[in-house]
Amino acid sequence: MGHTGNHFFEKFSNWAVKFTGSPHAFMGAFIIVLVWAATGPLFDYSETWQLVINTGTTIITFLMVFLIQKAQNKDSKAIQIKLNEIIAAHEKASNRIVDIEDLTEAELDQLHCYYERLAQLAKKDYDIHTSHSIDAAQRNQDYKYEFFKRKHEEWIQKQEQKKESN
User: Fold this and answer.
1) What are the pLDDT digits (tens) for 50-87?
2) For the chain, first and last CA: distance in Å?
3) Torsion sign over Cα 78, 79, 84, 85
4) Are 66 and 74 within 8 A, CB to CB?
């Protein structure tokens, strides 16, 4: 039963999102407002007359929030899949970027800062084809770590040799 209900909701929400974004829906809503305004004198602009449009628009707005959010979620997921495919297909792109939408806001901010730094590095390059991927940056970081670790170990050995000679 749940699967059938989800299928129905999927079909209905797709139709509703497409319809409510159409010129026909706008014209329908505009006509409803015109008819409502035109009937004002017939109902002496009563509270009930005002309540009809207020209640109707409130209910429609409430329901539309969920339809719009569902459409946004679906569109966002489709865009993420397309971007993931582009990343996976490009040999120089870092595959670590696939599925970053599951990261926390703080982790995304950290990546954003990293890419801002990469953009600054790219501006300094004379060759626009130079790649500054996360993998290249990781290799650079690994190299620097190993280099300074070796230098530090050499320094410690020299300090120990000095102690022994004294």
Assistant:
1) 999 999 999 999 999 999 999 999 999 899 888 888 87
2) 85
3) positive
4) no
